[in-house]
Write a structure and sequence with these properties.
Mean pLDDT: 88
Order of helices and strands: EHEHEE
Number of domains: 1
InterPro entries: P-loop_NTPase
Distance between the termini: 31 Å
Structural class: alpha+beta
Low-confidence stretches: none
Number of strands: 4
Radius of gyration: 13 Å
Largest sheet: 2 strands, parallel
Protein backbone atom coordinates (compact mmCIF):
# COMPACT_ATOMS: atom_id res chain seq x y z
CA UNK A 1 0.00 0.00 0.00
CA UNK A 2 1.27 3.44 -0.84
CA UNK A 3 1.11 6.13 1.75
CA UNK A 4 0.52 8.86 -0.80
CA UNK A 5 -1.95 8.65 -3.66
CA UNK A 6 0.07 9.73 -6.71
CA UNK A 7 -1.64 10.31 -10.05
CA UNK A 8 1.24 8.64 -11.86
CA UNK A 9 4.57 6.95 -11.24
CA UNK A 10 7.71 6.87 -13.34
CA UNK A 11 9.30 3.41 -13.43
CA UNK A 12 12.66 3.26 -15.15
CA UNK A 13 13.35 -0.41 -15.95
CA UNK A 14 12.19 -1.62 -12.53
CA UNK A 15 12.57 -5.34 -13.29
CA UNK A 16 15.33 -5.44 -15.91
CA UNK A 17 17.83 -7.29 -13.70
CA UNK A 18 15.40 -10.07 -12.78
CA UNK A 19 14.79 -13.34 -14.55
CA UNK A 20 11.79 -13.55 -16.87
CA UNK A 21 9.45 -15.44 -14.51
CA UNK A 22 10.03 -13.16 -11.54
CA UNK A 23 9.90 -10.09 -13.76
CA UNK A 24 6.51 -11.16 -15.15
CA UNK A 25 5.11 -11.86 -11.68
CA UNK A 26 6.17 -8.48 -10.37
CA UNK A 27 4.89 -6.64 -13.44
CA UNK A 28 1.55 -8.42 -13.21
CA UNK A 29 1.19 -7.44 -9.54
CA UNK A 30 2.22 -3.85 -10.22
CA UNK A 31 -0.15 -3.60 -13.16
CA UNK A 32 -3.09 -4.90 -11.12
CA UNK A 33 -2.30 -2.65 -8.15
CA UNK A 34 -2.02 0.47 -10.30
CA UNK A 35 -5.15 -0.38 -12.23
CA UNK A 36 -7.22 -0.93 -9.07
CA UNK A 37 -5.92 2.30 -7.53
CA UNK A 38 -6.26 4.34 -10.74
CA UNK A 39 -2.57 5.26 -10.94
CA UNK A 40 -0.99 5.83 -14.34
CA UNK A 41 2.47 4.47 -15.04
CA UNK A 42 5.19 5.88 -17.22
CA UNK A 43 7.22 2.73 -17.73
CA UNK A 44 10.63 2.95 -19.38
CA UNK A 45 11.99 -0.27 -20.79
CA UNK A 46 13.87 -1.90 -23.64
CA UNK A 47 11.71 -5.01 -23.27
CA UNK A 48 9.11 -4.49 -25.99
CA UNK A 49 7.17 -7.69 -25.30
CA UNK A 50 6.70 -6.72 -21.67
CA UNK A 51 5.58 -3.26 -22.68
CA UNK A 52 3.03 -4.71 -25.07
CA UNK A 53 1.72 -7.07 -22.41
CA UNK A 54 1.23 -4.47 -19.65
CA UNK A 55 0.52 -1.23 -21.48
CA UNK A 56 -2.54 0.51 -22.80
CA UNK A 57 -0.39 2.65 -25.08
CA UNK A 58 3.28 2.75 -26.03
CA UNK A 59 5.41 5.68 -27.09
CA UNK A 60 8.73 4.92 -28.71
CA UNK A 61 11.67 7.31 -28.73
CA UNK A 62 14.33 6.49 -31.29
CA UNK A 63 16.88 8.65 -33.11
CA UNK A 64 15.37 11.81 -31.63
CA UNK A 65 11.93 10.88 -32.97
CA UNK A 66 8.85 10.19 -30.88
CA UNK A 67 6.05 8.00 -32.19
CA UNK A 68 3.04 6.30 -30.71
CA UNK A 69 2.82 2.55 -31.20
CA UNK A 70 -0.65 0.98 -31.17
Amino acid sequence: MMLLKPKFLLLDEPVNSLDKDLSDKIMKNLYEYFKINDISIIYISHNRSQLEKYSTSIIEVSNKEVKKIE
